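Q: Could you fold this chain for me?
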Amino acid sequence: MIRFENVGLRYGMGPEVLSDISFEIPQGSFQFLTGPSGAGKTTLMRLLFLALRPTRGLINVFGQDSSDLSPGVLPAIRRRIGIVFQDFRLLDHMTTYENVALPLRVIGQPESDYRTDVEELLQWVGLEDRMDAYPPVLSGGEKQRAAIARAVIAQPDLLLADEPTGNVDPTLARRLLRLFSELHKLGTTVVIATHDIGLMDQYEAARRLVLNEGRLHVYD
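A: Sure. Below is the predicted structure, expressed as structure tokens.
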């Protein structure tokens, strides 16, 4: 599904923040991306989402070379990817329900087809009483759960989650991991960036991608 070959990234004229990154993510796999703060996890996630272009090297996503993708093609590629950002990126003028339903609205599904699914998912993540609330009045943990629900509602081909359990308690973190696991069983490829060793230990079958000082080490 994804292949990196000798990818390097630098900002401006500074040193490379990622160097010689080479790995593959098979379709239908489950991966954890981990490493110390400042190692480049969020940067690598942005490369996976095609929000950044590498300074050098090859990134192939869904069988297409990212350097060959025209701006008109990118939206269709990104619609196949669900992503949870650390800063959530909810739309303040939309309710929680509307934010979560947005990926389905974008692809033209009528509300009558998805309303029950959105409501059930909001109940699963503990936001059934916050469906009509707007992001400015939500807590950090509530925003995070809404962002996760939005990322998974359309059952994407690829799910990228950057520290998805950072603002929730351990019980809810386990529940969210079960949500990711169930999505994986349905065929979604999952990549979770996390510092939480305990969370990773709950899913021992997952491969670990470890970033350290801009370089990647893969542990099957």
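A (continued): The chain has a mean pLDDT of 91.
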